[in-house]
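Structure first, sequence second, as always.
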């Protein structure tokens, strides 16, 4: 059985889950905590002891979220998520990296990391980090809106891995209730489309022990 080793509060793992669902690939889930001492099982799968890790049906083990998504698009090419031309693939990879790294570091980690992960671990959120994340959030949301108004989706006319990476991060920030959707109508319209896809249903069922989601988190008409 294809198995994904992950944790639902990792944006990188949420991106991989979305890619698997978009490709209609069934998989079992083994939940592991990236904040605890690595288990022997995880070390045996990935010497770096990092999540997510995918074990495919034939026993192939793929580590690192970027490598997993590239692997999935090569082995299971339909629907294509990275692009069919060199230029399309380059733009998809550029934007995917933007959300995997820049958005994650400037927004997801300061907001969702403080309000969800820290609370789950029993720590109080850092108010300075929260302010930093909120200050950085709006420019990113405007950028999403600008791209999608011009292109339809982030990297072009078709949904791509860039949309999944963005939505994976935004879903965590949205869970924490930090997105002023009324200020970014174009971005909201894009997120409604992503959020309404069958691939997103499982993410909307995720929950953080002791931290209920914002009222609009699972609402498709928000």
């Amino acid at each position: 059985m294809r198995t994904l080793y992950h944790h639902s509060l990792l944006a990188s793992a949420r991106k991989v889950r979305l890619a698997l669902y978009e490709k209609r690939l069934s998989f079992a889930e083994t939940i592991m905590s990236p904040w605890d001492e690595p288990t022997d099982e995880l070390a045996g799968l990935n010497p770096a002891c990092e999540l997510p890790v995918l074990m495919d049906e034939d026993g192939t083990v793929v580590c690192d979220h970027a490598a997993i998504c590239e692997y999935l698009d090569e082995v299971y090419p339909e629907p294509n998520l990275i692009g069919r031309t060199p230029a399309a693939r380059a733009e998809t990879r550029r934007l995917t990296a933007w959300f995997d790294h820049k958005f994650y570091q400037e927004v997801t980690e300061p907001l969702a990391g403080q309000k969800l992960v820290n609370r789950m671990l029993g720590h109080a959120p850092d108010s300075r980090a929260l302010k930093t994340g909120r200050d950085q959030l709006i420019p990113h949301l405007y950028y999403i809106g600008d791209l999608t108004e011009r292109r339809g989706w982030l990297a072009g006319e078709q949904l791509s891995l860039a949309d999944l990476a963005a939505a994976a991060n935004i879903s965590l920030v949205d869970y924490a209730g930090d997105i002023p959707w009324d200020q970014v109508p174009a971005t909201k319209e894009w997120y409604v489309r992503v959020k309404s896809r069958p691939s997103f249903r499982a993410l909307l069922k995720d929950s953080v022990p002791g931290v209920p989601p914002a009222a609009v988190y699972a609402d498709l008409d928000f």
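Margin note: The domain at 3-75 is CATH 3.40.30.10 (Glutaredoxin).
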